[in-house]
Amino acid sequence: MKIKEIKVKDVMRKEVICAKEGTPMREVVRIITEKDISSLPILDKEDNLIGIISEKDLMLKKEWFERFCMYDSFDAKNTMNSMVRILSNIAGRVMTKNVLTVGEEDSVCKPAKLMVEQRKNQLPVVKGKKIVGIITRKDIVALVAEETNVS
Fold it and tell me: What is the pTM (predicted TM-score) of this model?
């Protein structure tokens, strides 16, 4: 079978760790680090996908970056104040709202292309507004290895 004929649903991970929009950011950071995931889909009260928070999002928050990297001297007090402001928020206020997604019937080539072009490590898989899975770079690399008898 040609790789382009393989569907996302055949490769995606069906168990997805998610959080609700009201989840405290301290909990979001804990989940991302403890579960060793690079992003966390955010759901509304009806379990519709409404956003995502990634490690990259957290690193790119201007306040954190400026405090850690831009100043000649490390200002612990201001750094802590910046982190406390962000961590005292909820997921719904920090998340990226325009989530790049794929459908379960799409060819695996679609998420592969999007991951390269948009520099994403993983993409939520949706059916309507509901998240039904997640596909990662690792999933696609493993598929290519399997299909080309590298593994």
Answer: 0.82
Q: How far apart are CA 119 and CA 108, in angstroms?
A: 16
* b/e sequence 70-109, b meaning 16+ C-beta within 10 Å: eeeeeeeeebeebbeebeeebbbebbeeebebbebebbbe
Domain containing 36 — which CATH number?
A: 3.10.580.10
CA neighbor of 139 nearest in space, from 118, 126, 121, 127 = 121
CB 67 within 8 A of CB 79: yes
Average pLDDT over residues 18-45: 94
Domain count, the chain: 1
Ramachandran region, residue 119 (left: φ > 0; alpha: ψ -120 to 50; beta: rest): left
* Domain containing residue 74: 3-147
